[in-house]
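User: I'm curious whether this sequence folds into something compact or stays loose and floppy. Could you predict its structure so I can see for myself?
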Amino acid sequence: MCFNFLGLRRVLILVGSICLLFFSTPAFAAEKVVLKYGIFRESISVEELSTFAQTGELSRSLRVNLALARQDPKAIRQYLTKPVKVNPVFLDRALNSQIGNIILDQISQVTYTPSRTADRQALRAALILSASQDRQVSLIEIIKNYPTNEVEVDGDSLESAYRQLRRLQTNLQDLFGV
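Assistant: Here's the prediction. I'll summarize afterward.
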């Protein structure tokens, strides 16, 4: 009896959290991205980065930033847009475990809040919201759904963040058989 109550409580909290995040997205979604490449640091709009991710069209500032950082725009675009399929319910369960916290900490080395506080919680919210929309997650979706006005991204480590997302997908499949 107690076990069923705890399971029901967890499901209700998950549904409530997803609803809260889903209906409050416009008010709390990131508007600016600070891209960091070594000593280079450039603030651009999420819309500008999203346009690049969707179309491949580089804005002037993004073109200059990537050129100065000696980054291949095609590779950056691939890491931003390549989706990882996940089940939002299993993702939530996994991210609220010790293994999930380790993965969140690793990904938050690449995508984090400007103050570097509550990185794990912000990233967890962005991941769950991204997955709840279409049962998949991409780095550009995480950035767009980040629950702060500004998000910082270590451009040199985008590939590492994508590999962590793929590892998360594999762990979910192993743990839950999905």
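Summary: Strands lie at 32-37, 40-45, 84-85, 111-112, 136-137, 150-154. The radius of gyration is 17 Å.
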